[in-house]
Task: structure prediction
Amino acid sequence: MNTKIIVSIASAMLMARWRQTLVAAIGVTFGITMFISLLGFMNGLNTLLDGLMLNRSPHVRLYNDAKPSLHQPINRSETFKNSYAFIHSVKANNSRKALYNSDAIAQAVKKDKRVLGIAPKITAQVFFNEGILDITGVINGVDIAAESALFHFGDYVNNGKASDLQIVNNSIILGSGLAKKMMAYPGEVIQVTTASGKQFPLKVVALFQSGVQEFDNVHSYASISTVQKILGEPANYITDLQIKLVDLKMAPQVAIEYAQLFEVDAEDIQTANAQFETGSSVRTLISYAVGITLLVVAGFGIYNILNMMIYEKMDSIAILKATGFSGVDVKRIFLLIALTIGLAGGSAGVLLGYTLSSIIDQIPFRTAALPTVTTYPVDFSAVYYFIAILFSLTTTYFAGFLPARKASKIDPVIIIRGK
Result:
């Protein structure tokens, strides 16, 4: 049958019951709007929370962990060679915390095409001297340029500039909680004491706030050279190599490979943040589940409207089949009606979904824990809009399939005889 005739008949049926058609389209529009806005908001929130933890963590961390020696003296004894030895309270050995040949390891890692970037780091336990009190803390010696490029450190500095750490000699950036304890602000000089008892003056150039209070109460940042001087270590002293990969999913495999290749301890981001990553996955799953449920409900509305339309159009369907339209043609007419409702409602839903997401993105959101965040986070990924349109057409197609098949099987003789 001619496609133009089928399209014109479908249009006529749609306009004849335009109120029901409008209600069905509004149902799809509402489902698509909420699907896009809900998914965009939830994933924007996930991105924000991931930035607090996952984006600030290296995908792979290389370090030397303090652990007992695997080869105890009794294992080397010929006397007890064929015996079982049970050793209690084994202590860690005196192996150094620094990475052996850290420069060579860094050069080898940089040549790996899977690696996006690398940032050296020194972790030092110190005491911050506040009058007669000693506050336990940690100074992280970092290359501020690499730290900002790979871990967005500059985004968390809310008082001062992160770049001053590399410019000002013997300087430090304090966590906001630690700064409040010490009443120390940019421009002031503080005293730190190492575990060996050495004191060292440092000038505060900035404050940072990560959003994790326990972290901000303890941690601070200084340049690598400054921490090396505080600890009295040489220029090649590095305790950690932080690695960012092109593909996050490769972290466990790369960690195992590097641990064997360089004979160091390696920790991947999935292992270090397993619980946090699970929470993000669950929130995303809930968002998709709610959005899809809304579209399925809208699909049932279309199904009911098309079903009622078939009963009301029995005469018209009988006449169509009596004048030469086949069952396939009738099925195409009703499927076209369903897909038209889905396309119109889906298109309007995408537009309203984007509008609602933009409105949410402008709503002020201020919290002391996240000073750099000023509005509610929203993700405007094109994937959500594509999924929404695809799912609206799929839902409306299946919603119209059963009524269309029922209409195609109507016997015109029975309908006309009944009249």
The CA atoms of residues 122 and 141 lie 5 Å apart. The first strand starts at residue 60 and ends at 63.
